[in-house]
Amino acid sequence: MPAKIPATIVTGFLGSGKTTLIRNILQNANGRRIALIINEFGDLGVDGDILKGCGDETCTDDDVMELSNGCICCTVAEDFVPTMEKLLDRPEPPDHIVIETSGLALPQPLVRAFNWPEIATKVTVDGVVTVVDGKAVAEGRFAHDTAAVDAQRAMDKNLDHETPLSELFEDQIACADMIVVNKTDLLEDREATGLASRLTEDSREGVQVIKTAMGKLPVDVLLGRGQAAEDDISARREIHHHHDHDGDDHHDDHEHEHGHDEFDSFVVTRPEIADPTAFAEQVADVIRTHGILRLKGFAAVAGKPMRLTLQAVGPRVEAYFDRPLGQDPRETRLVVIGQQGLDRAAITAALT
Questions:
Q1: Which residues contact 179 (CB under 8 A, 6 or more apart)?
Q2: Quick one: CA torsion of 53, 145, 181, 196, rounded to 10 degrees?
Q3: 5-235 and 263-351 have identical folds
Q4: Cβ contacts of 278-284, under 8 Å, gap ≥ 24
Q5: How confident is the model over 118-145, as pLDDT tens digits?
Q6: What's the pLDDT score for residue 302?
């Protein structure tokens, strides 16, 4: 059976910065053909300029699909699943699907929709990314412009819930695999750090909380997480069942020109390893100790002709043999990705 196509769900309130984050993904697709499903409706049409620059080869007009009949979690059967079927049945389906929900949408019903028979065998939820407006949340407002949220709520005739923003926010955090605290350039360092710490405490174990501005995260951190969220929906507790959604944030309320979303990556090279299982455990320990966001690479194993591939998202490490080493050097090369300030020397020492 062909591998399932990964899909990333991006959720968050109006103005949190979802669109900016997605634009960054498209502009740094690195050859991936990415399809984009946008949950816009009413008068909140997509600004065409938002999607420009994603590249004709990897993101054509046919790869951008708009759901305009209302909040995505209220129109799963009528709108979302049929759209996914059309996308997946193409002669050349995408390499990755990115779904930007309405800010009024709960992510849990959308994740559950990936178990519908029509699409369950073809696509999987690679990860749920919740984008948070750091400034608004720090001030207890959750959304930058609550009046705009109320206006969008009034426009959506299919909306079947009236949940307060605070409760919807809790549901978005509960479902997330990664929480992006955006607009941290509007906060003092201590405020941003304190907010990230609180969100970490409020989320499931293993959920990564990242501070940034302008949504400029490494694409390898956002995509390729392999969470299969539809298989553990019970862990993503839906705290409030009368879902409340907050408008699509296709009007980035601020276009900050000076984000401090600094990330660091470097390569660690070491000789071949002796025990793949022990090395995977070693890698997981280093990730936990140093707060590494992503680690990936290849290793040569003593006495083995095959190359060992390692992929780590947070503390979860996958290792498997993929192909003969051939003329490749018998060494181990790992790419480490994290927020700026990683202790390169300590990480390198711990991995070698």
A1: 129, 130, 132, 173, 199, 203, 207, 208, 209, 210
A2: 180
A3: no
A4: 279/319, 280/310, 280/317, 280/319, 281/317, 282/350, 282/351, 283/310, 283/312, 283/317, 283/334, 283/351, 284/312, 284/315, 284/316, 284/317
A5: 899 999 999 999 999 999 888 887 776 6
A6: 93
What is the reported pTM?
Answer: 0.74
Tens of pLDDT, residues 32-41: 899 888 875 4
What residue spans define the domains of the chain?
A: 5-235, 263-351
> Residues 240-268: what's their mean pLDDT?
48
263-351 placed in CATH 3.30.1220.10? yes
CATH code at 5-235: 3.40.50.300
Least confident stretch, 16-30, 61-75, 212-226: 61-75
d(CA 63, CA 35): 4
- Which of 182-191 are b and which e, b meaning 16 or more Cβ less than 10 Å from the residue's Cβ? bbbbbbeeee
